[in-house]
Every structure is written in structure tokens, then in C-alpha cells.
TrEMBL record:
PROSITE patterns: CENP_V_GFA. Keywords: Lyase, Metal-binding, Zinc. It comes from the Eukaryota. It comes from Cladosporium halotolerans. InterPro entries: CENP-V/GFA (IPR006913), Mss4-like_sf (IPR011057). This is CENP-V/GFA domain-containing protein. The lineage of its organism: Eukaryota, Fungi, Dikarya, Ascomycota, Pezizomycotina.
Length: 139
């Protein structure tokens, strides 16, 4: 079992990520779609897909949830604005896509296994070696 801690910048939101087997129970991917670029304020989104129950908030404060018109739910800190996780309408009872940059030790422990929406990759952004490549769909 692997356990990770993380949270937002101001500390009102803290969480644990418990992976029952190995770090392979969280599948990290980049997403180059424009919706992720905007949400992350960067050149791509970087999340780890994991079972909903593996991610637990440990603080009394609960995240604010914004539901985008495409059905994507985004959980964030209402105080400092840090974006913690996202999930689509259909996945909401089963999965979380954790923003791995919010882990206390950063994203190094959960390196990416693939890339989505490579059709929208920024021109200056190279492919991540040894990862699967999907032109569009994210799931
Ligand atoms: Zn915060
Ligand atoms: Zn995306």
C-alpha cells in the first residue's frame, strides 16, 4: 500500500491518497485539451485517475465544486483557489482525477503513463517518452 498526502496552498483543504496495491493504482496522464489548459492555467492538465474512495479529505473544510457546461466537476479550495481534483458527470460516483501537483512531494512519485488530446498539444511541447498517446478521447 502506498499513502500520499497533499493539499491546497492555504492548508484549509488537506487530503490523503491511499493506493491499496502500488502507485499503479493511480494512473497519471497529461491532457492537452483546451479545457484542461484553461483550468490548470498551463500548457496541459496533469491528473492521476484513481478510485473515488482512495482520495479522502482530512480537513473539516470541504472543497467548492464548479460544474462546467461539459459536465466536468472541478473541486477547489474556496479560500486560496487551488484546484484539487476533477471528474466527469458519469465518473462522479467511481473515480477522481487528482491534480498531482497538489501532492506534498509533487508529482514525481506518480509519473505519467500517457497523454490525451495530443491533437491539441502546444507546438513547443515535446511528447513524453514511453507513454501511450491518444489523439482525442480522455477516459
Ligand atoms: Zn486553500
Ligand atoms: Zn483535458
Amino acid at each position: 500500500m502506498s499513502k500520499f498526502n497533499g493539499g491546497c496552498t492555504c492548508g484549509l483543504l488537506r487530503y490523503t491518497l491511499n493506493l491499496p496495491g502500488s502507485s499503479d493504482d493511480a494512473r497519471t496522464t497529461l491532457c492537452h485539451c483546451h479545457s484542461c489548459k484553461r483550468a490548470f492555467g498551463g500548457a496541459f492538465g496533469l491528473t492521476a485517475k484513481t478510485a473515488k474512495d482512495n482520495l479522502k479529505y482530512t480537513t473539516s473544510t470541504t472543497p467548492k465544486i464548479f460544474v462546467q457546461n461539459n459536465g466536468v466537476h472541478r473541486e477547489f479550495c474556496g479560500e486560496c483557489g487551488v484546484f484539487i481534483s476533477e471528474y466527469g458527470e458519469q465518473a462522479k460516483n467511481d473515480f477522481r482525477y487528482l491534480c498531482v501537483g497538489t501532492l506534498d512531494d509533487g508529482s514525481n512519485a506518480l509519473p505519467p503513463k500517457g497523454e490525451f488530446f495530443t491533437i491539441e498539444r502546444d507546438q513547443w511541447m515535446p511528447q513524453v517518452p514511453d507513454t501511450f498517446q491518444k489523439k482525442e478521447i480522455k477516459n
